[in-house]
Amino acid sequence: MIFIARRLLLARRARGAGVGGMAILGIAAGVATLVAVLAVMNGFQMGMIESILEINSHHLRIETDTPLGDHDDLRELAEALSRVRGIRTVSPVAELQTLARGFWPEPQGIVVRAVPPGWPRDDPGAAERMSMIAGRFDLDGPGSVVLGSELARSLGVRTGDSVAVTHIPGGGTRPAEQQLLVTGLFRTGHLDFDRSWAFVSIATAVDLLEAQESTVLGIKLDNRFSDITVEQRIRPLLTPDQRIVSWREYNRGIFGALRVEKGMMTILIGLIFLVVAGSIYQLLRRSIMERSEDIAILQALGAPPGQLRLVFVMEGWMIGAAGTFLGLMTGLALALNVNGIFAALEVLTELLVQRGVRVFSPSHFYILEVPVRILPWELFLVAAGAIGISVLASALAARAVAGYRPMELLRGQ
């Protein structure tokens, strides 16, 4: 049956042979587009998710009522948590909503994050997501601050300059303004962090900014998807006024939006497969009609209708498999070389249009290069979906074989 299906597909005398080639190209185009778009979308989304989890929200957060100035009271709890299986690091942190003023007179609202001085050394995951573009992540000195690169640009400061930070302790009415020394500038690739975040040591936050915010114990796990299991292990160590918040709950808004965005994009691009499925259906319907006499002779010789239908189903499977293979290779080539392709487009644009034009200009897009993440299980689902739709369309078309009456067809010849 496979031999017969292949002969039917490759037969040059068949008037539908050209349509079969178009169906293969249609599936290849759909698969290649879906693979390339998913790879780039995964790159952007997973990069954002990792930046949020490693720098901002942690994998688990233990929210306490302990003021930041008394964070040493939580040292025993932090040491007990660090010994729990599955936990990588435990750090006391706090966030202060403040105003900052640099060279430009207009103040700007920022988030000052108070962390232990050795935070990047103790948390390699956060250090990996942050690149220092000037100075060092040095919070050892009193009054030291590390700014996001975009925040420093908007304030008009650089390393070695001073920034005036105004904080209202505990929601009171007396602001505490202090001059802090900029020791470093960081870049995460996430615009919200780089534009509005600053880091100070816990000592600076307590002694100079008079911070009275509650302390949060930020927990990093060896595997963030084991958060439920680890939460059950550490719950007996906590007091009733200490609350555990998982990264799933803390970031459910933005992560849910990213999930919906990816799902809608997949559905829209997947509509290509429906158009191709219609082409395969019409192709095999025409092929069955053109070979009605051959089918009638085979039926008269005793060939079961089920096997005849299976021949055309196998033909549809071959179309789907060939298109899927071609599409996967093309999509992977596009995804793995997307930055080279955009670089070539920029060179071509400069030659044909005008100089200085960039496809992804940093003045419009906050990226240095297009990130790409290829997930094998997504490739499997795309391939299975493309082949499955092809087989389904061919099975629907092959139902026409059951309606043929061999003696009636042969009597009319």
* Strand elements, count: 10
Secondary-structure content class: alpha+beta
The 3D shape can be described as: elongated
Assembly status: single chain
User: What is the H/E order?
Assistant: HHEHEEHHEEHEEHEHEHEHHHHHHH
User: What number is the mean pLDDT?
Assistant: 81
Low-confidence stretches: 12-17
**In percent, how helical is the residue content?**
40-55%
Number of helices: 16
Beginning-to-end CA distance, first to last residue: 27 Å
Beta-strand content estimate: 15-25%
Query: How many domains comprise the coordinates?
Result: 2
What is the makeup of the main sheet?
A: 6 strands, mixed, barrel
What does this entry show, briefly?
The chain is an alpha+beta fold.
Could you please describe the fold and organization of this structure?
- With 413 residues, the chain is α+β, with helices and mostly antiparallel strands.
- The chain folds into two domains: 2-48 and 255-411, no CATH class; 87-221, no CATH class.
- Helix content is 54%, strand content 18%.
- It is built from 16 helices and ten strands.
- The protein has helices at residues 2-10, 17-57, 75-82, 119-122, 124-129, 149-155, 191-196, 202-207, 227-234, 247-250, 252-290, 292-300, 305-336, 338-352, 376-398, 406-411, and strands at residues 60-67, 87-101, 108-115, 131-135, 144-148, 162-167, 176-187, 197-201, 214-221, 243-246.
- A six-stranded mixed beta barrel has the order 2-3-8-5-7-6.
- Mean pLDDT is 81; it is low at 12-17.
